[in-house]
Fold each of these.
Amino acid sequence: MTTHLRHDATSHGRLNLEQQRKRAKELLKAALAHEPSALARVARHIPLRESTLRLADAQFVMAR
């Protein structure tokens, strides 16, 4: 399986957890602002539901 990580998200082959948290927060903010690309990314991993998207959901998507 191929992973798609940005260079700044890794350090010597390890994930930079602080950077991953920031990216999850950015994804959450974009999805809540109804940005199409963010919504599409979330929809690939999280089923549609009526409750508000949470940071944990964005972190789950980032982990995929």
Amino acid sequence: MNASAELRFRLLAVLVGSSTLACGGATSDGLSSGGAGGTGGTTGGAGGSTTTGGTGGFVAGGTGGTTGGFGGVSTGGASTGGASTGGFGGVSTGGVGGAAGTAGVGGTSGGAGGSAGFGGIGGSSGAGGAGGGLITYGEVQCDAWCEGKTWDSCWPEGQVPVWPGVPMSNACPGAHEVDNQSYPLCGPGEVWFYDSQKKVPGMCCYTTEPQCLVGRPFVVAGEQRLAPAAARGDWGSHVLAMDEAEIDSATREQLHAVWLDDARQEHASVAAFAQLTLQLLALGAPPELLAASQVAGADEVRHAQGCFALASRFGSGLVGPGPLPVNGALDSIDLVSVAVATFEEGCVGETVAALLATEMRGHARDTQVVTLLNAIAEEEAQHAELAWSIVRWAVQLGGDNVKSAIACKLAEMQRVIHTRAAAEFEGDVEAWHAFGRLTPREALSVEREALDAVIAPCVDQLLASPSAARPSPVLSAQLS
């Protein structure tokens, strides 16, 4: 069983409240393959539906119609493109829906994207017309992934671009309902939206941030917060001497920068779990979730120490974190918001982090790096189990409101990950791998597999889950 299949099995066990699962017919690893779906129509107002793939396995379904119909080209008119439908694939990956039509010039939106196959990916929404009254506050930095850069995007009330199926109204839609595929200032799906604290009369404002899927960030009012780096030695658990002959200076500088960025992210995750613990307390969560959140925060302290030690090893001196601003971290707490944030930051972020660490460990040759990645891979997987336990509990309390918000967030993230391109790596790949790093192309491949092969089938299970509350034996076993 590969790393993705193993983690999927663990997470599905959390969601069904059992440590064993049967997915389809029996094979050597307990999983079976579904049949491949057929091919849908290729053009026209509505792409053809695909034939049905076999149920239960992890084989991709068929491809839906590739192109929706095109909207009209009348100035200011809201024209609508056609939609196509993805196939019914295996449990892991369904068919891919076709792209929707393009909006007319000045139109509000294109047609609906194709609907997803079971566990699959819907078609992309058509692009909105130019303009549309968008106003931004702050510097727009579309390519600042995972750097905590944000700005505010504001539309006039009634003109906010929303996902297909979300009714238009004069009220401001929720941030999870805003369509990031048609954002005109960045590429399709390159940003996420959060509810903003900015208030402009007659406008709907959303904090906007370039996508970042890895790990659990510390987010306050839509802004990702990180502590600055500081010259200090108490955060490096142990710093090994660096043999100058091992790598060239350019590679060493690159390694210092990426391990320092990871260290700051892991340090911020300590605050994120403290924030989560207090949110769970405010919502009346059961004791096993609170205890596991506390344990996870302590894990992140060790992860940060290990990453700061590596950053110090590759840098010119000892380095650690400066003060982290936490003001406003508990300004607003409600069940749906906490569930969606937990899904995004934990179910997705920490599932991705666990699989990335596993892949990085497979390439690494440095003993210190391998030891750290061993711990991170397993403990991030446990954090992902905790996150899925929390959203399962939230679904049991909040029902369809929580389910629909999570389904919408998954669709948004799938659109993003499958439209994003990886930058070319310039450097010594062999040394990069030896010290536990992946190239952008390799990392993007892992992220896509995590969403399609692990997270999507877990969401399918979550959406089909009953409302009766049951404790998770997987989580209980970890805490005993």
